[in-house]
Amino acid sequence: MSGGDEDAERALPREDAERALPRKDASREEAEASGEGAEASRTAVADPRAAVPDPRRAAVDPRRAAVDPRENGRTGRFWSARRVPAAVLALVLLAAAGLLLYDVASVRAHRPAMAWRRQLARELAVRHLDDPWVLAGAASAMLLGVWLIVLAVTPGLRRVLPMRTVAAGVRAGLDRPAAALVLRDRAMEVAGVQSVRMRVGRRKATAHAVCHFRALDEVRADLDSALGDGLRQLGLARPLGLTVHVRRPKRG
Prior knowledge:
Layout: H1 3-46, H2 55-59, H3 62-67, H4 83-108, H5 115-126, H6 132-153, E1 160-162, E2 173-175, H7 176-188, E3 193-200, E4 204-211, H8 216-233, E5 241-247
Parallel strand pairs: 4-5
Antiparallel strand pairs: 1-2, 3-4
Helix pairs in contact: 7-8
């Protein structure tokens, strides 16, 4: 055989080997792909929570909570800091305690007591319990104590109406004059209304409207509808009652 035939015979096994290599790689890739698919299927079967939605996440929807006030409940009123009464009481007590301490220290230093303390001790020793001045002082002290107790147990801030809570830890309030202004603008949009005087309380909103044309019953019905929608859109925690008074303008 010639040299060219020997080279051809040597080249044939090399070509077969090269053809066999891609097949081996392809079979390896198919095996790896099938292994990954099996592992993914095992993971999907082993963790069924991935296909089940979390009901707690699905239940959290602030927009829905804002629409339905019954889900949020009612919020309490805002509490006032009572800075002015607390400051006045603190200053009075501080001045009285300082004056009394100074007088006691003067007496301990062998100095005469102040005239006001000597006069007070003399009056307390002479006057009886049924004396008008003693009764007046006791009544004043009782009224002052009752006033301080009322300030301590009541929330205050009567001008602020609490609104519904749409997020945890966030509270909002609306001033009553601002609510009255919004409702007044809604009432002025009703046909036939010339002027409106609006008053918003803690439990009820009252409208006094003057109608210069249209029937009074029709205007009253439209005002009830418009102001009722306005009260619902204010987003208050406690619904307010509504009273509407309609009259004709005064002549002359």
